[in-house]
Amino acid sequence: MAYRSWNDHALPGDCDILAEVVTVGRVTRDLLSVVLRPSRRWRGFRAGQYVRLAVRVDGVRRTRCFPLAGSQHRADGRIELAIRACGNPWLAGYTAAIRPGTVLELSRARGGFLLPQPRPRHLLLIGAGYGVVPLLSMLRTLADECHTGAVALLHYPGACGEVPYREELARLRDTCADLRISYADPGRHGPFSPAHLLAVAPWYPEAETYLCGDVTLTEAVRRMYRDTALAHRLQRA
Predict the structure, then answer these.
(1) pLDDT confidence bin for 8, thresholds 50/70/90
(2) CA distances from 77 to 40, 71, 80, 206, 212 (A)
(3) What is the pTM assigned to this prediction?
(4) What is the pLDDT of residues 35-61, one digit of tens each?
(5) I need a surface site. Which of 60, 139, 196, 216 has the fewest CB within 10 A?
(6) How large is the C-alpha radius of gyration of the chain?
(7) Is residue 109 within 8 Å of residue 49, measured between CB atoms?
(8) Which residues share a beta bridge with 233?
(9) Rounded to whole angstroms, how far apart are CA atoms 138 and 61?
(10) 83 - beta bridge partners?
(11) How far is the C-alpha of 124 from the C-alpha of 155, rounded, in Å?
């Protein structure tokens, strides 16, 4: 692999960085974890951001956006994307083309769904389904920073019915003393309500809140924060 030679050549278009696929693993039935080694043109990212990835399928260049799942402080410079392996009919071909050793085209990191600086004393993360991915990136980043503030994650299963990266979340909970994680069961606990927040983060009115989920959850949380004069504390993906 002539990896070093990539660094002097910009590609046309917004996916102008080459990246080699290092590993491909399965997180859930239809979610893949893809680790890439980007060229030196890559300038890093901040937790919560996403990238565009270009893949050639039957000679046609396809691009899609994917969230970054890893810590922004990862020491080896590699990046991890969470890629859904279902959906549009051509998506099977798209994911099949992502194999270890192949070289793909990558955009620079994008998006303003970012943790504030300095880090807040209280942080609440709310996600549903695959919306947990950028929140996981935030948690991994905070863990690498040895963050000492109180952090809580409230997760809803979403349409997929699964919790992506559940084992990784358990590891983070076990190693971060001030991290609390709660998995809501709409069938048992009902739809989103302030009671869910009180159970996992009784200090939520003082917290900066980050939300990434489906329309139903997003609207319910947005409405509650608006009605309780906390809208200024809420950031949505």
Answers:
(1) very low
(2) 9, 10, 10, 35, 26
(3) 0.90
(4) 999 999 999 999 999 999 998 887 888
(5) 60
(6) 18
(7) yes
(8) none
(9) 31
(10) 32
(11) 11
